[in-house]
Specification:
The protein contains three helices and nine strands. With 152 residues, the protein is α+β, with helices and mostly antiparallel strands. Strands 4-9-8-6 form a four-stranded mixed sheet. Strands 2-1-3 form a three-stranded antiparallel sheet. The longest helix has 34 residues.
């Protein structure tokens, strides 16, 4: 007895079957009774295939655009030297600390907007001095820049 197969395009990741956007062959009943009603897949018609291809191309273009903007921001960040005035007591210890939020605020004053969560500090800065801070701007884009904490 031959088992017929039905081609579907997955709309989301399905464990042990495939990932979103993938073309897979399944039994007709599985497609008709489970995958399609649950909106996990659509029939692999020419129109649906073209739509999936278009979505993939759009996603690739979006990723390339994000990568380019991240690289541009990284280049500008690398050229920055940020000076943060802070109130310090004895032994050049700060009252409070300089956090990634403070650094992001000072970067914004230079006309760049960076999410403080992308800034990487091993711990908040608690002393006057010069520090190197890195920002993870994309999957493969990291910028390192100098931060000077000076007495107010």
């Amino acid at each position: 007895m031959g088992h017929s197969r039905f081609e579907v395009i997955l709309q989301q990741d399905v464990p042990s079957l495939g990932t979103s956007g993938e073309l897979v062959k399944v039994r007709p009943g599985y497609a008709r009774n489970y995958l399609i009603p649950q909106k996990m897949a659509v029939a692999a018609t020419a129109r649906n295939r073209a739509q999936i291809e278009h979505q993939k191309k759009a996603a690739i273009a979006r990723a390339a655009k994000l990568q380019a903007s991240a690289e541009a921001i990284a280049k500008r960040l690398a050229e920055l030297e940020i000076t943060i005035p802070a109130v310090a007591g004895q032994d050049e210890r700060l009252y409070g600390a300089v956090t990634t939020r403070d650094i992001a605020q000072h970067i914004e004053n230079h006309g760049l907007i960076v999410n403080h969560k992308t800034l990487q500090l091993p711990e908040p800065i608690k002393r006057l001095g010069n520090y190197e801070v890195s920002a993870k701007l994309g999957s493969s884009v990291t910028a390192t820049f100098k931060v000077s904490v000076v007495a107010k």
